[in-house]
Amino acid sequence: MIDDVDRANDLADAERAASIAAILTPVAARARTNCIACGERISDARLAAVPFAQHCVDCANTAEKLERHRR
C-alpha cells in the first residue's frame, strides 16, 4: 500500500525526470497533455493558466500539501 511519503517521493522523482527531459527537448515539443504522476489528461483550463504544467490539478495539490507537510 502506497503511503503519503511514497507518493511524494514518486511525484518528486517524476518531476525531476520531466524537468531534465524538458531541458533536453525543443520548446515546440514540450507541450504535455497528460499528468506525469497519474497519467490523467491535464485540463485545458490548467494548461491555459500554466502552459507547461506537468501535473493535473489534483496531483499538483497533493504534491504541494506534502511539500508543506515536509517543511
Automatic annotation (TrEMBL):
A zinc finger (dksA C4-type) spans 35-59. Keywords: Metal-binding, Zinc, Zinc-finger. InterPro entries: Znf_DskA_TraR. Residues 33-65 form the Zinc finger DksA/TraR C4-type domain. GO terms for molecular function: zinc ion binding. This is Zinc finger DksA/TraR C4-type domain-containing protein. It comes from the Bacteria. The keyword Lipid metabolism does not apply. One of its GO terms (biological process) is positive regulation of secondary metabolite biosynthetic process. The keyword Cytoplasm does not apply.
